[in-house]
Structure formats: C-alpha cells, structure tokens
Design a protein that fits this description.
homodimer; metal-binding (chains A, B); metal ion binding (chains A, B); three-stranded mixed beta sheet; Tetracycline Repressor, domain 2; 3 domains; SLC41_membr_dom_sf (chains A, B); 451 residues; magnesium ion transmembrane transporter activity (chains A, B); MgtE N-terminal fold; CBS-domain
C-alpha cells in the first residue's frame, strides 16, 4: 500500500542499473516493501533483476524472490550457483517457503542446493518437508513454531521461547506439548501477558485446539482455517505429535487458486493460466474445450440433417435453433454453477432427489415465463403459425427443464464419484445441451407438426 | 476439524431439547467449537435454536450467532429483546462483529439495542463504526487493538498492554503511536520477548508498516493483506491517526465473496444466491439473464429471417448455426474470463492494443485449427459442396476472432469506466456473440455463395 510505482521511477531505476550505480539503487529501493520491489521487477530484464538482487541484503532478496511469479523466479535463479541459492536465499527463508523454491529447481540443482545449506538443522527439516505431497497439510506447513512443555514454569517458557524465536520473524501462537511432544493446547499471548512468572504452563494453557493431520488435503486445511477464523493451524502426525504449522497466508493462496481454477474450468479453460502467459500456453489450455464444443455443434448439425426433408417445409423452425440452444445453455450453466459452488463451500446438503425436484420446478417456472414471452413475440412479430409457435414454446420449456436437471445432476454425480465437479461446467454441459436441445426440439416438432 | 457431526448426534440433541434437559444438552455441546454448533443449528428449528442459545454462556452464544447464515441469525434474533441482544450478544463481541449484527436489525431495534449497551465506551465505538460504508476499510475494521506510546519504556508498555488486552481474546500486533496518536510503527512480539524492560519503545519499534485509510475499498484492503502476507492491517484517518484494525479473517470473507460473485456473474446469476435459497429468490436471480439470452436468440432468428428466401436454397447452412454459435460463445467466455480474472487480481498490465493484438492472434490460431477439422468433417462426412464448406470455415475463423476480441475488449472497457467487468461475462457476451455470429456467418455466405 501507500506507494505508487510510477513510470518515471522505473525509468530512473533502469538508468541507475545501467550505470551500475549501487548507491543510488539502494537508496531508491530503501523504503519499499519486498512485494513492491517484486512488482517493479516485472519491468526489468532478468539481467537487471539479478544485478539488483545481488545488491540488496539477503533477507530482502529472499523476500523479493518469494513474491515473484514462478516463471520469473525460475529464470532469475538460473543466474545463481547452488551455493549462492543455499546461503543467500534458502538460509533466509522459512522452511515452507524454502521447500517451495527448492521444488522448482531441476533435480540436479535441488540436490546441490540442499548439500550447500550450512544450517544442518534447517537442511534436515527441508528434506523432511520435501517428501510430503504439495496438496496436503504436510506440503503447506513450515517448521517454524514455538512450543513449550506443559511442565515448564512461565519464566522457563519465556527463556526457551526467546531461543526458539531467534530463527524467525513473527510469533503468533505458542503451542503446548507434553513430554512425548504430543500437542495438548495453546498459550495465548494474552495469557502470557497476564500470568505471573512462576505459574506452570500446564495450569494456564487452553486445551481447546483445532489441528489438522499431515495428510489432510489443502482444501480441507483452508476450510478449517476459514471456519474457525484462525491465523494458523498446527499440524500433527498420527501420534498427535506436533510436526509443523500452517499460516493463513499460505491458505489464502489455496483459496484464491481454487476459486480461480473453478472459474476458469467453468469458462472452458483447462489449466490455470494467466492473461500474461504465452499464446502457445493459452492455446493449449483453451483449444481442447473448443474442440469439444465443435463436436457438439457438429453433432447438432448431424441431428438436424436427419430431419432435413421435413425441414425444407419448415425452414422457419431452424431460425429458432439459436433461441432454443442459448436458453438451454444459459440455464445449464446457471444450475451447474450454483451446485459446483455449493459443493465447494460445503453448503450443499440434503438428498439429490430433493435438489433435482427443486431444479425441475425452477426450470418449469423459468421455462414457462420465457415461453410466454416468446409465444407473443413469435406470433405477433415473426408471424409464425399457431402450431409453429406452440412447437417452439413447448420445446423451450422441455429444453430448459432438461438443462436445469442435467446441470444439477452431473456435478453432484461427479462429486460423488470423486471427480472435481468444476470440470463438468462450462463447455461440457453446454455441449451436451447443444446436442440434446436440438434433438428435443425437433422431436417435439415432429409430434406437433406431424412431419 | 476433528469432530464429525452424525445424524444420531443431532437426533439425540433434538430429543434432549424437546425434553428441555438443560444438563444433557450442555454436556453434549461442551467440547464443540461455536462454528460446529452453528453447523448443528442448520438442523434445528428457530425455537430449538433459541432454547440452546439461552442455555449456553453468553460468549459461546455470541460466537455461534456470528457463524450462522445471515437469514437464520435474523430469524433467531427476533426472539430476543433489545436488552438481551445488548447484554448477552453485543457485549461479548468485538466491535466490528457487533456492528455487522446491529446493521442487520430493523432501524427501530438498532436504536433500542445501542441504548441498552452498558459499556458506554463500546457503545461510542459502535456508533462511530456504524457510519462507515460497509465496503470500505472503515466498515471492516474493529476498534480492538493494542497501542503503545513511543515514549514509554517496555515495562510501562507491558503494564498498559495488559490493561488494553483485558477486553479481547487475542493479541497479534502491538502498534506504536506518537503523542498525537499518529501511527508510526509496530512492535513485534519477538522484539518484545527479547528486549530488556527499561528500553524505550521508540528505540526498538519497526517503522516499516503497511496501513490503509478509512475509506480504502474492501477489495483494496484484501489485496494489500494478501500482497504483504499480513495477519492484520491498521486503519488510519486522514491525519494518519490510528483508528482501527482489520484482521485477515474478515478479509478472507471479502475474497471468497468476490470470487463467488464473479463466478456467479459469469454463469448468469445476478445476485449472490445459495443453492438453498428459495425458488422465488433463485428465479429472481436467474430469470433476468435468461431473458437477455432469449432476446439474443430472437435477434438471431430475426437476422436469419432476413436471409430467408436465399436460405431455402441453402438449408444446409442453417444446420451449422449451432456450430458457429457454440464456437463463438466458448471463445468469448474464455477470453473474458481470463481478462476478468486478471483485472480482479491485478495481474493485467500493459496497453489495451497489445492485449487485443494478442487475442486476435490467439483467435486466429484457434479458429484455423478448428476450421481445418471442420473442413475435413463437413466435406467427407456431411458431403457438403466445396463452397458451402469454405463458407462455414471462413465464417468460423471470422466469428472466433471476433468473439476473442469482443470478449477481451468489453471487460477492459467496462473496467475503465468504473463498472465491474464481471457483469459483462456470461450471457452478456454470449448474447452479443449469438447475434453478431449469425450476422457474420450469413454475410460471408452471401459473399461466397452469392445469394
């Protein structure tokens, strides 16, 4: 906040970098937060970036690296030796961030960097964290935490906490464990402020505590942190031993990425892409769904061509295919979006039949509303015959009800089978609606108009 | 976490409530987190809920109320008098939560409740907070914070902090102000653990601090907290005086709601609805977009009827309308989703022309890919003539490029005009594509086939 990065500032910085004027650069960046400097880096070449990184203090450099986009960071890290990465970057990071960075390196460099870490304790912790799946609590957690034994007095606890706190910047929770390292509670900073020095930790700690297991999925971790309004959540192993802690900032990334992924899937984009990605990457993410949509379009064409002879008499029916399809498509997307979102935030309860019944009613209501308007417009403006108007309206209601039910059923069905329901939205449902919609339309036409 | 709410548990609880067995109910709920009890409440009637609320301690009751859905909370609060709400609910809450609850009351009850608040200091703070816009930092912030004067010694600071901390549960940051109450920095818990008692606060505080102004929008507040990985952010007035603090949990709600809203808008749902809302509310949220989509379909029909006589000769062209439209629709949604998301998370930079150029290329690439496949399929499977196949393929490329450009341009244009770009996605872009797509298709047909 509070700092506006202007074009003039960037131009001046580039100039100073070209002049290799270390002093001026340091002065310019002095008051900036690493996250702001990382934003500035978007405007610099990798060579310029590495010049700046080398100038700044290791701690700042490490923070800047963490804030960069993955691809920019990878490029930049290629400019550094394993030793430099270990001593100047990894050494300054919390273990969870260090693991994220190391995971982005090539297999060979990974081993080299770990071998170069001077703090053997940190190296061990990193190696431990590396073996956890990225999408679980183990993959999110860091080893930086403060724990006190329940048998300690508050004064001993303070002494130990000072020692433990040396390695990292911020302390938010104090965890209480027993002699077996089993997590039994927390000590709030407030308790800590208001308790006399000789009190035993075991007498004042809070034993109501939320925790997650090492293999809890990252989405469940995020849900727990949000549900219980936590700043961090401790991670335990199968024996309830405290092994790490996950902070809310890591979880916000999970929440954001999930929401973005669902949104993109609904929009027919198969990978998590960014508007700044290359055309090739964007095409790879977008073309598959377009192909599926194309097959839907061709499928609809092939159904229509089956009615071809009859349709030569009723060309007018073909004019309303877009109306039928867009209505079915819109209803299908609406229904599935609500269900997918409900499944994602856990608000969907109750049986599937009750829900389908509700969607049926909803589709019927919306369908009748639209059909009525269409009846009037087709009859008075397009001047279609009574039977053609009737065909269009009956088909509209049928197609909308059908789309509402399919849009509800497919995500719930997939979710029950363990498949991410978000993949079903967007083009998938639209495509099945395209084909089914046309089929229903012309079948109804055949019945009413008798061709 | 860690507690599974079973059907048996709920049945037993209902039974005990019917028996008015206070002791058994208290025992059953003893170990549960208020957020879990709130989840249980979904299964209880308002009458049962109010019985339980009256049984539990005020602090727990207040926490449960905060976790309920707004509508359930409103219903439940109708069962309580203004005095009960003030003494048993508001009294136990942080000011930001208290304000949220009070804002949900009727104007009359609002005044009554505020008049009944016994802690006059809290009442004043609540009245102050009530005047801020809900969507700004002022509307999100609470007054619970710990501040120390830079001229105090650490030992004085501790004494004052104990006093300030009495009213609330958790303490995460210690803010440092000068004699004018101007925010000048923070004191980390770590510093606090490792500094001797006689040191002056002014000598050890950290003057690098992120803050927001009272009228900063909630989305900007969220972005700042995420960008700088903060647990809370202080709020200052125009004179830089510290007036409140916003915690990350409040901001997570903002992030979630925004993501859900964007997603729903893209799916053509105009209000923030839930799958459990009434059919009437869902219809109100869904029907408007369906009507717009309907107009698009009728618009397409009216364009086609303009070509009617020609089309009697080329009925085959009409069969491929769904293909043209679904391709245009899918590309339009993909393009706009990426742009909307980029605008939401601030990753969109650079000029609009560069971006349009990129989308043009992307559309061309995807369009040519699809057109090639369609060319082969129409020619060999549908047996269309060379000119008809050519018409379809040229139209496909033109329509896809057009959709990509529109899908990119509209959100950026709206955003520049201060309109939420998310409203433009979904049915809006689909509908304009429906009409334009058909128009482009038949215009190209006219040129190539010469009707």
């Amino acid at each position: 906040m509070n700092i506006e990065i202007t074009k003039e500032f960037i131009d001046l910085l580039s100039e100073k970098i070209n002049e290799q004027n270390a002093k001026a650069i340091k002065e310019m960046l002095e008051g900036l937060h690493p996250a702001d400097i990382a934003e500035l880096f978007d405007e610099l070449s990798t060579k310029e970036q590495s010049f700046v990184i080398n100038l700044l203090e290791n701690e700042t450099s490490a923070d800047i690296l963490l804030e960069l986009e993955e691809e920019d960071r990878k490029k930049l890290l290629l400019k550094f030796s394993a030793k430099e990465i270990a001593n100047e970057v990894i050494n300054e990071m919390d273990t969870d961030d260090a693991v994220d960075i190391i995971n982005e390196l090539s297999e060979r460099k990974k081993v080299e960097v770990i071998a170069q870490i001077e703090d053997k304790e940190q190296a061990k912790e990193i190696v431990e964290l590396l073996r956890y799946d990225e999408d679980t609590a183990g993959g999110l957690m860091g080893k930086e935490l403060i724990k006190v034994n329940k048998n300690w007095s508050v004064v001993t606890a303070i002494k130990q906490m000072r020692k433990q706190a040396e390695d990292f910047e911020e302390v938010f929770s104090i965890y209480v464990v027993d002699d077996e390292d089993v997590l039994i509670g927390t000590l709030s900073l407030k308790k800590f402020l208001t308790t006399s020095a000789n009190t035993k930790v075991g007498d004042v700690y809070n034993d109501k505590i939320q925790y997650v297991y090492i293999n809890t999925s990252n989405v469940e971790v995020a849900n727990a942190i949000v549900k219980y309004d936590l700043y961090e959540i401790p991670v335990v192993d199968e024996l309830m031993r405290l092994v790490g802690v996950i902070t809310v900032d890591d979880v916000i990334d999970v929440i954001r990425e999930n929401a973005e992924e669902d949104y993109q899937l609904a929009a027919g984009i198969t990978q998590n892409v960014d508007s700044d990605d290359s055309i090739w990457k964007l095409t790879k993410a977008r073309l598959p769904w377009l192909m599926i949509g194309m097959l839907g379009g061709l499928g609809a064409a092939s159904i229509m061509s089956g009615f071809e002879t009859a349709l030569e008499k009723y060309t007018i029916l073909l004019m309303f295919v877009p109306l039928i399809q867009s209505s079915a498509g819109n209803v299908g997307i609406q229904s599935s979006a609500i269900v997918v979102q409900g499944l994602a935030n856990g608000s969907i309860k109750g049986g599937i039949f009750k829900r389908l019944g509700k969607e049926f009613l909803l589709g019927l209501l919306n369908g009748l509303g639209i059909a009525l308007v269409v009846l009037l417009i087709t009859h008075f403006i397009f001047g279609t015959t009574y039977y053609v108007s009737l065909t269009i309206c009956v088909a509209l209601v049928a197609v909308i009800v059908n789309a509402a039910i399919i849009g509800t059923f497919i995500p719930i069905f997939l979710n029950g089978r363990g498949v991410d329901p978000a993949v079903s939205t967007g083009p998938f449902i639209t495509t099945s609606n395209d084909i089914l919609g046309v089929f229903i339309y012309f079948t109804i036409a055949k019945v009413i108009l008798g061709f």
